[in-house]
Structure formats: C-alpha cells, structure tokens
Amino acid sequence: METRKVKETKDGADVKRFRERLKDKKKIVVKIGSSSLQHSETGDLDYTKLDVLVRELCDMRNRGKDVVLVTSGAIAVGKKAVNIKDIKHEEEDNPIAVKQACAAVGQARLMMTYQKIFAEYNQVAAQILMTKNTIVDNLNRYNAHNTFSELFKLGVIPIVNENDTVATYEIEIGDNDTLSAIVAALVDADLLILLSDIDGLYTDDPRQNKNAQFIEVVEELTDELMDMGKASTGSSVGTGGMNTKLIAAKIATSSNIDMIIANSKDIKVLHRILDGKNIGTLFVGNKETYFDLPEFVANMHNN
C-alpha cells in the first residue's frame, strides 16, 4: 500500500510560526470524546482524567481565556447506569427511544460529575444542549450566540453536548467532532482542540501502512485529504472517526479558526498546546468568504 500525498507544511520555520501564534488565542473550544472519558476495561467514567481535564480548563480561564467544553459521554454513562450493553439488541423495536432514555439518564449524571469537579476549582459551569435547529434557525442561532456571550462575560465555562434526548435524524448533528466545530464558529472562537484516541492526522492509516507519515501542519484542506477520512471509523464507544474530524476541520478553518487534533491519553497536552509546543496536527484557519455556517449545517446529511 502506497502512502498518499497531501498538501502539508514541512518547513520548520513555518511550523514554529503557526505554533507560536497559539499562545495568543483568546477563545478556545475543547472537545473530548466518549472513549477518552471512560476506562476501557469497565466502561465506567475515568475520574482521574475528568479531574485533569477540568483542572486544565480552569487554568485556561485563570489565564484570561474564554473556554467552551464540548463533551461526549451522556449515552454511554446512561447505558452503564441502567445496565444496557448494546442498545441495538436490547430493544430492537425502538432503539432510538432506548438511546434517548439513556441520554436523559446519562446527561444528568455527567453534568453532576462535571459540576462537582469544577466546584472544587471554584469555577462555575453551565450546560448547553444543542440540535441542528439551534444553528439553522436564525432566531435560535442568535439566542444561542447571545447566551454564550453572556456566559463568557460572567466567567462561566459552558459545557455543550448534543440534545440526544430529543434529537432525531432530521435535527441531529450526529457527532461531537462536528458539533464542536459548529460551536467554535458560532461563538467566534480562534482555536478548536479535538482530544481523541489518536495522535493526529497521518498520510494513511498507520495501523495498516508502516510507511504512513504523521502530518504536523495542514495549510489547505484539499479534496484528496478530505477523501482520506471517508473510510475511517470511530471507536465502539464514540460516533466519530477521522472523517468527522476532517469535516470539523473544514468548518473550523473555513471560519478562520485554527484546529488541532491531539491524543487525549495525556490531558495535560492542553496547556502545552497553548504554550506553542508541537503537539498533534494543526489545521490552519483560512477564512473562506463563500462559507455559510447555517447552510452547511442544514445540508450536512445531504453531502
């Protein structure tokens, strides 16, 4: 299998320049996936990781930055709470209802956990649940933007998830990689960090191709690069693979937002990224005048 070629930045000076400007980012959206929040052996929440994540986010606030957390995990937490292992087989007649019931249980438990940990660091957090209609509808989008803006003024960290309890195919965004990019564009963020179970973007699947090369910086999202993610799949816990991360990169970079994919194995990479360290894959923001967020979101399932 040959390694595919994609446009990337290789010059060391360019890499350093792009990384250095991360130090000046003022409004940051951080997304963490379901698999990053749980112990793989049991499916229970990893409280150590949660504590480190909250501490890192609070430290960002203490550095004077506005912060948003987009978190997965509600359905997984709910399934664990009501002892359901596989929604598809547990209730084949109406799996959507089972999924939404698990989300209702899990979202409450997840937020309770976050609130307790944030309180230990004297930080106030807020919950925001979104669907596609939050962005597509002009009034809903306006109100959501105002809510985020007021929370930032109050020094609050918004915790965002999709409203899985009511979302159906017609109004769902579908994964939190995409949701986090939509949120970043909505709040006019200047940096989006996707924490996942991968180090970043490679020229090919490193598990299948030993010659696959790690990509440090991507300056342009070419069609060939976007096609690379379409065959990827996510973990058994989450809903996103590399394809959703590249879609997120498309939304973010088109909105002039830098985006980084980094491994959540060590949550402390967050402050290292903001210190300009060369961690993960950096997608460079490049405003596209033709890009319209509500239109893109409205047509997502049609692409």
Automatic annotation (TrEMBL):
Claim: DNA-binding is one of the keywords in the record: no
Catalytic activity: L-glutamate + ATP = L-glutamyl 5-phosphate + ADP
GO MF terms held by the record: ATP binding; glutamate 5-kinase activity
Binding site for ATP: K31, S196, D197, T239, G240, G241, M242, N243, T244, K245
One of the GO biological process terms: L-proline biosynthetic process
Pathway(s) it belongs to: Amino-acid biosynthesis; L-proline biosynthesis; L-glutamate 5-semialdehyde from L-glutamate: step 1/2
Localisation: Cytoplasm
Residues involved in substrate binding: S72, D164, N176
Pfam families reported for this sequence: AA_kinase
Keyword vocabulary terms for this entry: Amino-acid biosynthesis, ATP-binding, Cytoplasm, Kinase, Nucleotide-binding, Proline biosynthesis, Transferase
Transferase in keyword set: yes
EC number(s) reported in the record: 2.7.2.11
Occurrences of domain Aspartate/glutamate/uridylate kinase (ranges): 26-263
GO cellular component, as recorded: cytosol
SUPFAM superfamilies to which the protein is assigned, alphabetical: Carbamate kinase-like
Family per record: Belongs to the glutamate 5-kinase family.
PANTHER family assigned to the protein according to its UniProt record, in alphabetical order: GLUTAMATE 5-KINASE (PTHR43654:SF3)
Function: Catalyzes the transfer of a phosphate group to glutamate to form L-glutamate 5-phosphate.
Annotated NCBIfam families: proB
Protein name stated in the entry: Glutamate 5-kinase
Gene behind this protein: proB
